[in-house]
Amino acid sequence: MTLWWTTTPMVTAVCILSLTSLSRAQEQIQKCTYSSEACGCETEKGYINLKKFESKPLYVLDPVQYTEYHWNPCKDFKMGKIESACIQHLLNGDEYDCGSHSSTKSSVEQGNAVFSMVSSDRKRTSKVTCVCKKYAVDDFAFSGEYPSTVYGFQLSGDSCCPEAVPPSSSSTGLSPGSILLIAFLVLVVVYILVGVGIQIGVRKAKGIESLPNVSFWSALPGLIKDGVGFTLTCGKKSEYNKI
Questions:
Q1: What was the pLDDT predicted at 223?
Q2: 103 and 217 together in one domain
Q3: 94 near 82, Cβ under 8 Å?
Q4: Based on the number of CB atoms within 10 Å of its own CB, is 115 exposed (0-12), middle (13-18) or buried (19 or more)?
Q5: Transmembrane segments in this chain: where (predicted)?
Q6: Which of 25-29, 81-85, 89-93 has the lowest mean pLDDT?
Q7: pTM higher than 0.85 for the full model?
Q8: Domain coverage including residue 149
Q9: Is the same domain home to 31 and 148?
Q10: Are strands 82-84 and 86-89 parallel, antiparallel or unpaired?
């Protein structure tokens, strides 16, 4: 007979492995259509949004060659004499283009999103594998150079996990709130102009009387004050006027 305490650890290990495999299967994607608005791609599970790195490019140091690599998934940036999305910086001060933003393409390899770039002179290629690790801190690592002038990187963390919400557009279109505010201001201007025109042209009013509904607007502050006081006192007066 097998004792329960000898089987329990085995069952626990099997459960953990099953849950881990299930989690990895849920994190894997089948398609990755490049999206410039997300600086990433659209998957069947949502968007991989890397726009957070637009203002601060990712950086990694190759510990073997002591070479720096910088990558901005959203746009080309300038370093020294080079302007590109992926820049290789040597310790002697030289920089090399290792992938322009305009050449960025996305694909899927082993369930992970992959972003590929080619330098402007077509001499260097970079591939960034985006590995989803839910709620994990983003980590950008250099995988190696294989073959020569083909640079591999891995970005792992929560940023590589698809989001159900689509990225906000980078266009400068007005928001609904801005449209409502502009419409309100236009109505106010039209109300004043038309009202003044009627008061002067039809009623021959002069001075402050030429403003439309001047008596109402003059009394409005007092009405607001009374309303606030009534609300704060719940309609009760603390004292009465003498008769």
A1: 83
A2: no
A3: no
A4: buried
A5: 179-202
A6: 25-29
A7: no
A8: 27-160
A9: yes
A10: unpaired
